[in-house]
Each structure stands twice: as C-alpha cells, then as structure tokens.
Design brief:
By secondary structure, the chain is of the alpha/beta class. It contains five helices and seven strands, in the order E-H-E-H-E-H-E-H-E-H-E-E. It has a five-stranded mixed β-barrel with strand order 2-3-4-5-7.
Length: 177
C-alpha cells in the first residue's frame, strides 16, 4: 500500500496508479452532493440544462455538512453512505466524474463504471465529521440552497485523509471484508 499527497486536478493522472488500500491526502476543489442534489442534477442532465459544476474531472464528496459555526469554514462534515447515490453514479461517471468520496460499498454497476471510466472511489472515516471539517478551508453554496445541508457546496480540501476503496483496475476493498 502506498501513500500519496494529491490535488483533485491530479486524479485523472493518478487514477490508474491508485490501488485499493492506498492512503491519500487530498487537496483541491471538491463538491458536496447527496440524494436530493443528485436527483436535481439528473433532472438538469435530462433536460440538457447547465449543471451547477462541470462533472468532467470533478470530485464529489457525499456529505451534508452541518451549519457553519462562527470563525470556521464549515460545520461537521462527515461522509454519507454512498450506496444511496448508486442509481446516479454510473451516468455521472460516464459524463466525466473522476472521484467519489463517501463511505460503504457500491453496486456492481458503479464498480463497472469506475473501471470503464478510469475513476476512483475513496472512503473517508465515518463518525469523524468534526475532525474532517478541519481539512476543509473553504465552503460556498453553489446550487440548490433550498436543500439546506444537502445543497451543492464547493469545498476546498487541504490534506483530507482518504483510503482508496475501489480502484479502476477492479480492486474493491469491500470484497476483502
């Protein structure tokens, strides 16, 4: 198992190098998106309308941060169970999504799309949202503000600790458990 310090802009360059169990400190732009936001993004795709961010090369963190306390960039920001987004993920990956961050196993369809698109699925530590928030330097709501904690936010990660859970060679951490 290897360790990497990467920026989100490097994911495409490293996706074929990253293997299950590798540890990554990730920095760069990441977008939050969960169930409700995924549904709205899918509707925009179906209507051929502009998306809140470009999926091509993007990194999505399945998270719904709590309200931001004074003096901090963000509230508690732990990962959401990723399987809830599985019905959307293959299409998003086919549209260029390169990185998903969450917790828990993914469906066969998502795993196949990760391989097909040379993407990567990272797991973040669940139950440590307050600790995770310390690795987020900026947070801006960019779409669907009416969704509250499930609005789409643009985050700036700084050395956010992750583990490669599914790699583009077909390696799957959850097959080992």
């Amino acid at each position: 198992m290897a360790e990497y310090i990467l920026n989100t802009s490097q994911i495409s360059d490293y996706s074929e190098t990253l293997k299950v169990g590798d540890r990554v400190l990730l920095s760069g732009t990441v977008y939050t998106s969960r169930d409700a936001a995924h549904k709205k993004i899918k509707q925009l795709i179906d209507r051929n309308e502009k998306l809140p961010y470009d999926l091509n090369g993007a990194a999505i963190y399945y998270a719904g941060p709590t309200p931001t306390p004074d003096g901090l960039a963000i509230g508690s920001c732990g990962p959401t169970t990723s399987g809830r987004m599985d019905k959307y993920a293959p299409e998003f990956l086919d549209l260029g999504l390169k990185c998903m961050i969450g917790k828990g196993p993914r469906s066969k369809e998502v795993c196949d799309a990760i391989i097909r698109n040379k993407a990567v699925y990272f797991c973040a530590v669940g139950g440590a949202g307050a600790l995770a928030s310390k690795c987020i330097e900026e947070c801006e709501v960019i779409a669907f503000e009416e969704l509250g904690c499930e609005s789409v936010k643009r985050l700036q990660f700084k050395d956010f600790p992750l583990v490669v859970a599914i790699d583009c060679s077909g390696g799957n951490l959850f097959d080992r458990i």
